[in-house]
Every structure is written in structure tokens, then in C-alpha cells.
Amino acid sequence: MPTASAFVLEKAHEPLRADQITVDPPQADEVLIDVAACGVCHTDLHVIKDEVAFPKPAVLGHEVSGVVREVGAAVTHVQAGDRVACSFIMPCGACRHCAEGLEDLCENFFNHNRVRGQLYDGGTRLSRGGEDLAMYSMAGHATCCVVPSRAVFALPDSVPLADAAVLGCSLFTGHGAVHSVAQVQPGENVAVIAAGGVGLSIIHLARAAGAQRVIAVDIDDEKLDLAYGLGATDVINSAAEEPAVAVRQLLGRGVDVAFEALGSVATVKLAVDMLDDGGRAVLCGIAPAGQTLDVDITKLVRRKLKILGSFGASAATAMPEVIQLAAEGKIDLDTLITHRFAFDQTAEAYQLLNERKILGRGLIETNPALV
Predict the structure, then answer these.
(1) C-alpha dihedral sign at 283, 289, 294, 298
(2) For residue range 199-256, what is the model confidence (pLDDT) as tens digits?
């Protein structure tokens, strides 16, 4: 069985620690990938800080690109040697939601992977000294990983392999929010609250979808400057002015769509407060456990406001579209990826993320020799 170097989360609130692990061969409908790069996502930080419950010890990392080493017997759409990127939602293809094309609601993904850290036969492909390790999605903070085949997508040569990692969560999530959930139309005005990796992706994709005004909201002027570079037409520093008031000063009314990309009570309430009558608040940020909505119910009813949840997208449709946008040069990966780390800096990357020192998306370049 293959062995791999990996960063393991032993206990909550502790730094990730480098170790050697064993990786089982892929099952019939799985793919073994040599990891080229893995994104640094705030959702993994939630797990590290125990704000999202997850079994431990575990290998995190859910935004992966790499080269196929081996495929299971039932896999035909990729083969050894292919350059690939993976969606963080790994649809089973068998549950009632997958059957209806709602892969972002895959029951087996949530019940097995997100609750137990397992794949769909109830097992994990990772172990250390005979002890199973939980897998957060495909467990990409390792030099190789096993991924269900429906989450694996071939890359054209025009897409840089390492940079392609961020297609599988940051941009995949943004695409689902902009196109599947909000269904942003040309000429609409949108606001994006929190200009981190996902928020910046939403800004970039909303502008590409034809939004007339894209207003970025954050407390960090450096992030707001980056938002301009990715398509924001206006920015609001919410530490300096009240965003709902500022939006109405800019537009004369509220926005058609407000995207919330942080996951907090205050920013969800802000998203609703920024809406024009009939507007849509699209919630994309994962909140620490126990946080609940705080909205004016009468305002919601009388003004026909909509609050919509958005978690990723349907892998089968969204990932090819995101990859095609990247291949056509319509996604500025180089601007979105603001911090690059060597594999041995993985723990340091999450420390910097926790300190809000990563402006856009951080990227662990796991194996530069593959690129």
C-alpha cells in the first residue's frame, strides 16, 4: 500500500503535525491522486478550532489538484497520468438527491464524510500504525489522496496544475452561489460581504455574469483593494461606515442580491438589511456551531425578501463550467491566489489564516515537481 507524508490534526486547537501515513489503494469507483497543490480554506480552520465538529485524528484539506496515479476498476473518464482537479463535494451518485441532480445535497457525503470522516463504504482509506484517520473530503493535506471518481475532473493543458486546486472549493462554491442559487442576471446589483477566498470568487464570477454593480464589504482595506482587482465596482469598509446605509447612498436603494461569505450572526443580518424589496440574501459562509439567524420577520414578510442557503454546487455541471472559464482565461487565478506555501509550511499557513493575514486564497504547493 502507498505511504504518504501528511499533516494530521490530532486534537482541536492544536497545530497540524507532519507525519507518515498509509493510504489504501482506490476502490472500484475511486481515484488515487498524487497531490500537486491544496488550498487553505477557512472551513478547515473551523475544524481545527472545533467550531465545526469532526472526528480526530484527521487529515484535512479539500481543495486539491494533482496527477492520477491509479484508478479503480469502474473508472473510465480519467486514467493514470492525467492532470486533474477535484470538487470538495464528492457526490455518491446513488442517493435520492444525486439522482435528481442535486449533488450538493448528497446524503452520503454529509452522513459519511462530513459526520464520520469516511468514504461511502463506511471506511477510511487512511491509517497510521493500524489506526484509521478521518478524511475531511479527500484529505488533501497529504502527498497523495483517494477521491471518489465523481469528484475528479480532467484539466486542459492551458490551466496551471497547482493553481487549479482552488477551482474545487473557492470558485466551485462561488459558481454555485452566483449561478445555481442566486441566479444573478445581467444588470443586477450585488453586494458581497467578506472578501476572503470565497467572497473574492463570488465577486469575480458575479461580475462575469453581468452584474452591473458589485459592492465588496470588508473591514480590511487590503482585501478591498484586491476586490477591485477581481471586478468589484465599489467597496465599503464596514469598520468605517454602516454598509446598509452606504449601499443606499451608492444606489439609491438596496441590492438585488447580497452574498454572505463569512458565517456570523452579524453579517447574515447585514446581508438582509442591504436588500432591496424582493431581494435575495445568499448565505455561503460556514458558521461556528450554535449560531442562529437574527432577522426582522415582519420586514422579511412585507418586503418579500428571500434567504437562501448555498453550499458548493452540483459537481457534474459546475466543475466543468469552472474549468472551462479557467481554460478561457476568464478566471484570474494568479490574482485570487495571494499566498503560496511549501508543503512543510502547512501548519504555518493555517496560523496566518487564523490571524487574517491571508488576503485572498492561500495555496499549499505540495509537490512542485508535478507542475
Answers:
(1) positive
(2) 999 999 999 999 999 999 999 999 999 999 999 999 999 999 999 999 999 999 999 9
DSSP secondary structure letters along 329-355? T-S-HHHHEEEEEEGGGHHHHHHHHHT
pTM strictly above 0.90: yes
* Domain 172-309, CATH number (from 3.30.70.100, 1.10.287.110, 3.40.50.720, 3.40.50.1240): 3.40.50.720
Please give the CATH number for the structural domain made up of 3-169+313-370: 3.90.180.10
pLDDT tens digits along 319-357: 999 999 999 999 999 999 999 999 999 999 999 999 999
Return left, alpha or beta for 187; rule: phi > 0 is left, psi -120 to 50 is alpha, else beta. Answer: left
The residue that leads in pLDDT, 8 or 130, is: 8
Q: Where are the domains of the chain?
A: 3-169+313-370, 172-309
Neighbours of 105 (CB within 10 A): 18
Cis peptide bond prior to 160, omega within 30° of 0:
no
Alpha carbons 323 and 331: distance in angstroms, whole number: 9
User: Which residues contact residue 357 at a Cβ distance below 8 angstroms, ignoring those fewer than 6 apart?
Assistant: none
